[in-house]
Amino acid sequence: MNHPWIKSFPGAIIVCDTQGIILDMNDQAVESFKEDGGRELVGKNLFDCHPEPARSHLAEMLKLQKQNIYSIEKHGIKKLIYQTPWYDNGTYSGFVEISLPIPFVLPHFIRAEEKG
After folding, report:
1. Closest C-alpha among 94, 73, 75 to residue 85
2. What range defines the domain where residue 10 resides?
3. pTM of this prediction?
4. Residues in the chain with pLDDT values less than 50
């Protein structure tokens, strides 16, 4: 990931192809997965990194191009996990995962629709 903002983004970003092969990771993703190999994970298959039932869920997401959004808590840190398909010139090309630390108490605002 060559763009400076992506490299220094405070969340982990991982990009894979349609078969689950990791294509790229930003610096935060490398740091987050350093015990699993860090940057050496590029070129590896996500299926090898996940046990069941996560492996079956991943297979379904990749096959159906199904977005997956949830939050987790690990090591006292709450994170938003956002997994979504990505496309190259309209062709399904794989998935992007963004893992972003978020506060435990998060403000929620309802914005009024603009008229016009």
Report:
1. 94
2. 4-101
3. 0.89
4. none
